[in-house]
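Good morning,

Both structures are done.
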Amino acid sequence: ANNHNFSIPSENYSTKYLRVKVTTTDAFGGTTILLSSSFEIGIADANPPTGSVEIIGNVQEGSTINASNNISDPDGIKQTIYNWQISLSNTSSGFSNITSASNASFTIASDQSMVEKYIRIKITITDNNDNINYFYSDAKQITNLNDPATGTVSITGRVEEGSTVIADTSGLSDLDGSLRFTFQWQSASNTSSSFINISSASNASYTIPSDQSMVNKYLRVKVQAKDPFNNTQEFISASKVVANIDDAATGTVSINGTVEEGSTVNADTSGLSDPDGSLKFTYQWQSALNASSSF
């Protein structure tokens, strides 16, 4: 028994103690003797248990799963110990016991702390001769359960002709992680009519036309939120009426008729117009001693 490995005989060694003595020799012939710790040689399990263990249930966030086994031992089973284990990857060396998870059933955390990790069950069997054997289930990856995004979206900025407004998504959140957004601005003639998509208005901001085309209409934004698992949810802001901005009337006013003593003349307003709509007029005739004096 002078090799680096040693096969323990199957007879006459049980309950004895085993250690290894190693003698080192350096380049100058110096020797050193080192001794390992000693270990009691156990009795081999002549009738090991057989069977397997598997995980039953939906392996996803918030679910309860169970360990099912068909393990039997000719020597009888004195004790069965359960240990649920978790790992970032599906490799046997990466698993560690989950704290306080030593029952046949286990409830997966309902937050994101275990999502996409791997879980398995380890069963320790002790027979009536105190032989110990271990059984492991296949590992399963924990899937995400969609947590719906919550909150509201709103419109910020002056909702008026010619202004730029912004879809405010700061009030939206999702337990599943960061959200990505797509936008669609919509308008309607009044609150009881259907909202329709505004062409080419699919950014977080929208510039209201500076003409009269949107004045007195209702504006809202529809936001689609997508979480890291590609679950989507739709949010719609409250609608706001688009206010008018005064556009100054343009053109000229002239006098029609013969401007002479005793004649009747008229104010000609046909050259006046206003983008805000039809004009109503009031008049005040004025006179002066000459063109350079005050009227």
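Second structure follows.
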Amino acid sequence: QKGGKMAIAITNWYIDESFKFVAAEIADRGGRLIGLQQGGAFGATLDIAPELVERYVADVFIGSGWDEKEDTKREICEVIPLPIPKYSKIKNSHRYKTDRCIFVGNMIPRYVYRIQTFLIPEEMEEYFHWKYIFFKKLREDILKRFCYRPFFGDYGWNEIGRIKKEFPEMNIFKGGNLLREMKKCKLVISDHLATSYLESLITNTPTVLYWDKEIFKIRPSANKYFDLLRDVKILHDGPISAADHINEIFDDVNKWWGNESVQNVRMQFVNYMGLSSKNWVYEWSNFIKEQLELRK
């Protein structure tokens, strides 16, 4: 907007050309540029390109609970924690209505298009193989309850074909509202760091995670929170451990998930990676006023 004093955006910094011009004009007039977290990988993984781009461009970056000081050597701005509006609306909204279990998958293009420290094309065959091991390890009666949610783009990997070849009875969940379905299912499983695993934990949906820690590398500042997830068997370092745990707790998932130690860990993690607040409007209003006062 002409004469704007501040720009707050998520992905617009690198995909929206018209926004870039508006943001440049605001910055040139001494206005403030504010970056805002997207997904569940920012603040968790080692250097992730979109986060670095946004923190390089912005004057300050909003983290969903986590914070970091300005890094003058890498020329990236400070991260200030604020409750995320969406997370504040979906907190503890899980209501068990169906025995369906949802496995949320991920996908990347077949060719490298940006610098990142996790899941590159050369690692995809192992990623698929771990999924095969996981499903093979599940009890037959449990496997029948599973549906697979693929990423919206396949990029030529033929993932559904691979799954159907080994598990022809597997239900494939395409389209629809993933969050809505997660909020009423029995169990969510995710094998990667992205939005879905975090929203599942925020909604308090029973959740089991697994991934290769050599592929999905966690930054030192977040390690202790992921270790807490490991301690209560929410997070596993491989598909066999995750499947064995599900086989063990499946007949009474809530006995495990409702355990005080599990819930305490979940809440600690969510406060760090998916902060919410009933007073988020007030907190955001104060933040915006403070930023406007910092204009040059």
